Task: inverse folding
């Protein structure tokens, strides 16, 4: 446990703690800012959803997120369970909880896990990989 806390404290990029960037990412989801979310992934990042082919690259991710037009995210929370170094990147796992309304007007409340890899770039933290599960 002490190692995990020390690793989390060491995870900074350009003076920004990784945990803060994850909170910012959750806020972008809540605001449904598809362009900003896609920029977080850059040219090489990918989203891996259960039962679907991975979505890779900023343009493909932006297009994927645009397919949710008309949906409303009411709340989004990401809770970090562990942050650990992974070569030059950082591995982050945790859970998420989201509430909202589908484009058809149906309320939803979903929770699950996330497994992600983040990297520090000159432009700040970027997501290399984000996978979600139940």
Result:
């Amino acid at each position: 446990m002490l190692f995990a806390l020390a690793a989390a404290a060491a995870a900074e990029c350009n003076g920004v703690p990784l945990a803060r960037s994850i909170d910012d990412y959750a806020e972008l989801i809540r605001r449904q800012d598809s362009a900003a979310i896609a920029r977080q992934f850059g040219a090489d990042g990918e989203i891996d959803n259960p039962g679907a082919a991975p979505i890779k690259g900023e343009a493909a991710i932006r297009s994927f997120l645009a397919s949710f037009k008309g949906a409303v995210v009411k709340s989004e929370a990401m809770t970090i369970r562990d942050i650990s170094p992974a070569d030059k990147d950082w591995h982050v796992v945790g859970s998420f909880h989201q509430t909202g309304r589908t484009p058809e007007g149906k309320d939803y409340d979903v929770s699950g896990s996330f497994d992600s890899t983040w990297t520090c770039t000159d432009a700040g933290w970027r997501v290399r990989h984000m996978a979600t599960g139940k």
Q: What stands out?
A: The radius of gyration is 15 Å. The chain has one domain: 2-32+71-133.
